[in-house]
Design goal:
Length: 119
Amino acid sequence: QVQFVESGGGLVQPGESLRLSCAASGAGTIFGIAVMGWYRQAPGKRRELVAIMSSGGATSYGGSVKGRFTISRDNAKKMVWLQMNRLKPEDTAVYYCNVDPRGNGNDYWGQGTQVTVSS
């Protein structure tokens, strides 16, 4: 019911920046998307919250990225972005776009994009 187009991952050195983007579409989004955001999963670790944003602009960030990452979205285009600055090796993970159209926990996941931070 929801299709995703994710982009922006790659290999960068510590201290550099990346910007992830995600476009959602499909029948599950025709009435808009209440919550859009990003999660990540590193090898051997559980998936964790990176940042989420409501359609009204409220945001929530994971503790390890506060002050370095910024989430933004365009409600009309059903797109969400994640600006990642001052990247660290521990930010290496697969980053997943997530949307919760009704804000009720019935959410959908993108296919993921790899971010690798290494010198």
